[in-house]
Structures are given as structure tokens and as C-alpha cells.
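MODEL INPUT / OUTPUT PAIR
PAIR INDEX: 1
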Amino acid sequence: MTGDAMTNGPVIEARSLVKRYDTLTALDGASFTVDRGEIFGILGPNGAGKTTLVEIFEGLTPVTSGTASVLGIEVTEDPQAVKARIGVQLQAASYHQYLTLREILELFGSFYPKRADAIELLRRVRLEDRADARMKTLSGGMKQRFSIVAALVNQPDLVFFDEPTAGLDPDARLDLWDIVRSVRDAGATVVLTTHYMEEAEALCDRVAFMNQGQIVGLDTPQGLIRSLHAPYRLTLTTTQPLSEADVRAIPGALEVTQERTSDGFVARVRAQAAPAVTTALTTLAARSGAEVIDLAVQPSTLEDVFLSVTGRRLSG
């Protein structure tokens, strides 16, 4: 995709963005960049400032202080120029229920100097056979797929997706993931807000964690996970309890907890080096005369990182 204002610099550059509503500070000095051609995720609990941040980039909300550049355009100086170059998919979009899909896309396209063919857009999300169907006849998954292509009518260089898979079943969610990837593969940069950690981990090249109006973590998903002091979770279930002191004495064993369950005695350990701690745990169990019922080694997730950074889970 092309555009007169595209530069070789970042697609988005936020510099010390602050947004206040009377005594409420919705954004508190957010600074970061989004590179061309990436899927960039913004995650955070309700009230973290995600919506305010995105609305500033979209030219919908003025800043209290700081600057935001989108596609080489200072949003605060020319929001209309930004709006012509971006696509926006909203979580709760409302379309005329008695217009056909083709008519809606053609109507939206008429608002822009550059537009995509309606049938070609529908083909991208496998809705071309529903081109003359009315919105009210579509299933929830079809409506979600349509909301994505409705954001592409002006062939945007940058697309904002707001919770694109909210409320969908697992199969439909995976289907939408492929569509989001295809938008990036076609040449657009994608900014994605989501509440699903596994979605961000699967889709995003980089992820920004937001909490209380601030960017509290920003890296690739794996980079964020590697930043944890203990990126692995080990769970050992045995017939007899292990000495907690002996478990804590294992080099590299951190955050040790034990409990008795219906399956046996469960020791949970955080570890930096999973193989060495696993070997030491099983050796300790054998020396203690405890039979190993189950052993699981799991890498940490973005949810673990978010909990470590903010002190709460995303759903909290």
C-alpha cells in the first residue's frame, strides 16, 4: 500500500502523551513507536487507557499534552488527513440492518477518494456469496468478519482492530486470526487491542502492556516472557509430600508452593532453568521414597508477565 505521507520512520510515534478529563488522568506520559508492517498489540484491563490512546491516533480525541504522529502526519495538526488513511474496526459496530453487504461497502467507499472493490473485499473473508444478503441475516461470526473488511474500504495503510474476536467461539476466533494476518500480509500495519493473552501471543509481533494510563511493558511476546526471572512453571505430583525446605534448596527453584489434592501431593515451582530443576525434583522424590504420579513443565505466558508487572491478572 502507498501513501503520500508515508515516511521511512515509524507508522505511529507517540511522544509523552497525556490525556486528562478534569481530575482523571486517562493517559500518563505514554511513549512508543509502531513499525511499518507489524501487528502491534495493546493489552490492559478496563480503564487502563487503551481506548483513549487509540482514539488519539484515530484523530477522535485531542491530547492534553504530548504529540502523536500517524503515517508521518501530526494528528493534532491534521486529524482529517489521518482519518483518510486509516481503517477502524470497532468492537460494537452498528450497520444498517436493511442494506446488503455490497451496498454498505459501496456506501462507505464513497466517502473516500481511494476505495476497494466491494466483492473483492467480501471474497477476502469468504462472504462473497452473501454480497446481496442483508446485515440482519448474518450470524455473529459473519458480522465480525464483515466488520473487518468494512475497515478496509479505503485501502488503508494502517488498520485498528478493537477486540475483533470478542464473543466468538474458538473455531471462529482462529478463523479471524487468519484474516487479521492476511490484512498485514496484504501490506497494512495493524494495531490490535484485545483482552485475550493467547490472541496477542499468537498474532502480535510486539505487545504493549498498559496499566493506569502508562505503558508498563513493551517487547515481543517472547521477549516479555524471557524478562521474567522464572519463565517456567513446574508441577510435580507425588504419593508422598516432599520436604519444602529441600525443594527450596534446589538451585534455580523459586516461588515454591505445595498442597494436598485428591490426586496426591502437588509441588509447584517457578524455575529459570527447567531441565536442571526437573531433574533435581525427580531425584528428590526418589530419595524421599515418593512415587511420581505426574510431572508437567510449562513455559510462562503473557498473562504471567502481566501479573508480574502490574500485580494483577488482565481479567482483574
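PAIR INDEX: 2
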Amino acid sequence: MADMTHSPSSSSLAPADDLAKGQIRQNNEAQIVAAAERVFAGAGFGGATMAAIAEAAGLPKANLHYYFGSKQALYSAVLARTLSDWLQPTHGIVPEADPRTAIERYIRDKMALSAQRPHASKVFANELLHGAPVLKTLLATELHDLVQAKAAVIEGWVVAGRMAPVDPVHLFFTIWAATQTYADFDVQVCAVLGRPELGDADQARATEHVVTLLLRGCGLHLP
């Protein structure tokens, strides 16, 4: 009788193997980028080194060069990831959405990102303070186009009487300023509040304040 048992072919194992390798790569890249945020925030681009980032990530320096090639490429990756994560919550700002729900969700998500990844916010702010040499083109194209599209949605809500008249583009500027200040100027905020650092209760209080203030300015009443 012929032996009906057989071992899995290499082709059947390949997809699972590729998936595992892809997950490892994704995890390592996220670990490196998170470490790079901390180092770039503290030392700036000029003062940061790949060795310091590797030490912060707990990975060999060779891994950084394998995944990103250079310090410039890693810096660009940090900025691109930050901008992408900040803009992701704007996807809820669509014509058919409830204005209060959509704008409140965006504000809360931005406040959460400032609390969870303050170093990323500081790296981004420092890039802008230096004239945005890496981000200038991206800001003038992708960011510009997205803000214009979302501003048109908000203008539609205003015209339809669904919220108070506001300048939709400047509303975005105000949201960015109000939410990112708790990361970019945390030293000032902590000094005034008499705290060594902002705790969960401080972040929650700040979030409710910013949400309430901005929604009232938009004529969107809280329940």
C-alpha cells in the first residue's frame, strides 16, 4: 500500500514564513522609529546619532542601516509617520457625518496622540521651526490638498446651518495648536500647574477643556 502521508511542501510553508518575516520587520521598524522619536526630540537631527538611536531601540546599529539606510532616511520616516498618524482621524470628516461627532473625535484623537507620542510632536515642531527642509514639499502638496478637501466639508456644514460660521482652514490651525501644545510645551504647562509631568488626570482635564472650548466656538453643543 502506498504511503499516503506527506510533509508540507516548501510552497505551502512559504506564505506563513513570509508573513512571520513581515511581522518581524514591521515590529523592528516600529521599535526603531519610536526610539528615533525620543533621540531626535532630545538631540535634534544634528545631535542625534545612529548609535544613540540603536541603543535606545535595544537593537544592533546594523539593524538601523538595514531597515532605513541612513540617519536622514530614518528622520524622514519619523516625520512621515507622525504626519500620517495626525491626519488619519480626519477621515471621519465627511459630508454625511454629524459635525459635532466628527470634530470632537478628531480633537480627542489629536490630544491622545500628543499624550502618547510627545517626542514625535516635538520632532515635527522642530522641523517646522527650521523651515521644514524635509517636509516642505509634503506640506505644500499632500497636507494642503487634504486640508482643503476637509475644509470644504466643514464649509458645507456651515452653509447647511449645521454649525456656526467658522473659517474652516483656520479651525484646523487652532486644533493643531491647542492639541500639540501639551506635547511641544509640556515643560511650560507642567511649571504652571506645579507638576513634574502631566499625569492621566491632567491629560483628561486638558482634553475636556480643549474639546468643550472648540466645540462651543463651532456652535456645536455638547450633550
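PAIR 2 NOTE: The chain is about 75% helix and 0% strand.
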